[in-house]
């Protein structure tokens, strides 16, 4: 828009300059004609006085009958001697510089716009010379109207050009933005389409693609490293757990048995962390999209209530569902079940003094929103972002066993389904909303 306004201002300035320059040239030409006529008549007066001047005026007017010249030779009192004006104009002094005025010529039927100058001759008589400038005024008016039309046409063309250019630029930017959004959603293989034109957008696309190639290579290496490390650690940790459990069976010493049981619990936590890390890695890499299937969300939540209901009752909670209408969508059942299960386990662990957990489901703005809400103490709003960080654990929860990966897995599952995760106040308690793309 700024470029359009600048272009319009430049065009308008150029047209205004042309109009004013044309007007000045026409005015100067009229002044010159009148001055030349005045000089010629003065030369005649100097050569032969009144008779010579009268003769020249009459001869000139006869020759240019119907022309544009205006002449009046008058006595000191203004009474006409010769010329084509019937009387000396009352608004014109005996000595006057250029004036523009409407006057009747003796052979005219209507007033005409004239440009005139007046002077007093040495003997006291008066001489008025001028030129009809109506044609010039019409030319100036036509010129002004043409320039105005050209300016309006230029405005329309500039606006159209700006709109077309803006649309083209917007389309190219939207292409880059769409690629960036898809990469942000985890599709690292996406690239900006380049046309080989060599323009600025093509160069930008090549630079972004080179950056994405590097990012994809680094992320792939890091993912392979973490995935391989987690996978390789599971075997020795599993063997360690098996050995500890065998030692627990064979141990008779109470103190040693207590220590082994604590070590076994820590190993179990470590195994859980490794399993969760593998699940997060697979979800973030997009593994499992081929296992999306159409699912009845209400039935899925009912299954989770059946699985976690007994545990919730043992811990003093009631577990129930609140599904708003029939909802069917395509999703990865195992990942979503694991994500909701993690949220239920978190609520059971951290919702101290609470007694109710509600699993909700609704459809909003093209998203299936699954919620797990409790009536415990909740999390302050200014710490929601901290709670979502991987391995993030708020101070009051540090005495409770856990890995800090539960919400990270939920977020990875949400991203796999082109959704997100959000925390909100349940007044009292915490509500965790898992948004999934509604794909039916």
TrEMBL record:
Entry GO CC: plasma membrane
Keyword entries, A-Z: Kinase, Membrane, Phosphoprotein, Transferase, Transmembrane, Transmembrane helix, Two-component regulatory system
Entry's Gene Ontology molecular function annotations: phosphorelay sensor kinase activity
First-listed, main subcellular location of the protein, grouped into a coarse class: membrane
InterPro entries on file: HAMP_dom, HATPase_C_sf, HATPase_dom, His_kinase_dom, HisK_dim/P_dom, HisK_dim/P_sf, Sig_transdc_His_kin-like_C, TCS_sensor_his_kinase
Domain Histidine kinase: 228-440
Domain HAMP as annotated: residue spans: 167-220
Domain of life (superkingdom): Bacteria
Subcellular location: Membrane
Keyword Kinase: yes
Transmembrane portions of the chain: 146-165
E.C. designation(s): 2.7.13.3
KW Plastid (keyword) present: no
Descriptive protein name: histidine kinase
The species this protein was found in: Caenibius tardaugens NBRC 16725
């Amino acid at each position: 828009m700024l470029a359009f306004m600048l272009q319009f201002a430049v065009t308008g300035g150029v047209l205004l300059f042309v109009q004013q320059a044309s007007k000045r040239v026409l005015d100067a030409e009229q002044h010159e004609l009148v001055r030349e006529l005045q000089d010629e008549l003065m030369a005649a007066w100097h050569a032969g006085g009144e008779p010579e001047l009268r003769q020249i005026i009459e001869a000139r007017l006869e020759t240019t009958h119907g022309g544009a010249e205006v002449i009046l030779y008058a006595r000191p009192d203004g009474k006409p001697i010769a010329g084509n004006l019937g009387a000396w104009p009352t608004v014109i002094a005996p000595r006057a510089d250029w004036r523009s005025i409407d006057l009747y010529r003796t052979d005219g039927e209507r007033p005409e716009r004239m440009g005139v100058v007046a002077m007093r001759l040495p003997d006291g008589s008066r001489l008025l010379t001028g030129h009809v400038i109506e044609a010039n005024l019409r030319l100036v008016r036509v010129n002004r109207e043409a320039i105005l039309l050209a300016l309006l046409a230029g405005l329309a063309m500039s606006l159209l050009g700006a709109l077309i250019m803006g649309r083209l630029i917007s389309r190219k930017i939207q292409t880059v933005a769409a690629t960036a959004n898809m990469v942000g959603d985890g599709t690292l293989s996406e690239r900006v389409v380049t046309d080989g034109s060599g323009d600025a957008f093509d160069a930008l696309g090549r630079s972004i693609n080179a950056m994405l190639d590097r990012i994809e290579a680094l992320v792939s290496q890091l993912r392979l490293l973490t995935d391989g490390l987690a996978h390789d650690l599971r075997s020795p940790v599993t063997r360690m757990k098996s050995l500890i459990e065998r030692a627990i069976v064979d141990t008779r010493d109470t103190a040693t048995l207590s220590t082994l049981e604590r070590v076994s619990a820590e190993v179990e936590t470590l195994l859980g962390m490794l399993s969760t890390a593998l699940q997060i890695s697979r979800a973030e890499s997009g593994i499992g999209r081929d296992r999306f299937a159409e699912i009845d969300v209400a039935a899925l939540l009912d299954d989770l209530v059946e699985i976690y209901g007994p545990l919730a009752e043992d811990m003093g909670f009631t577990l129930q569902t609140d599904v708003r209408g029939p909802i069917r969508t395509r999703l990865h059942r195992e990942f979503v079940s694991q994500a909701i299960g993690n949220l239920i386990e978190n609520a059971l662990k951290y919702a101290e003094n609470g007694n109710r957990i509600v699993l909700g489901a609704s459809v909003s703005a093209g998203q299936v929103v699954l919620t797990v809400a409790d009536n415990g103490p909740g999390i302050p709003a200014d710490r929601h972002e901290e709670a979502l960080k991987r391995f993030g654990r708020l101070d009051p929860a540090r005495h409770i066993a856990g890995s800090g990966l539960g919400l990270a897995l939920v977020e990875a599952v949400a991203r796999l389904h082109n959704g997100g995760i959000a925390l909100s106040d349940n007044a009292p308690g915490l509500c965790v909303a898992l948004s999934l793309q509604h794909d039916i």
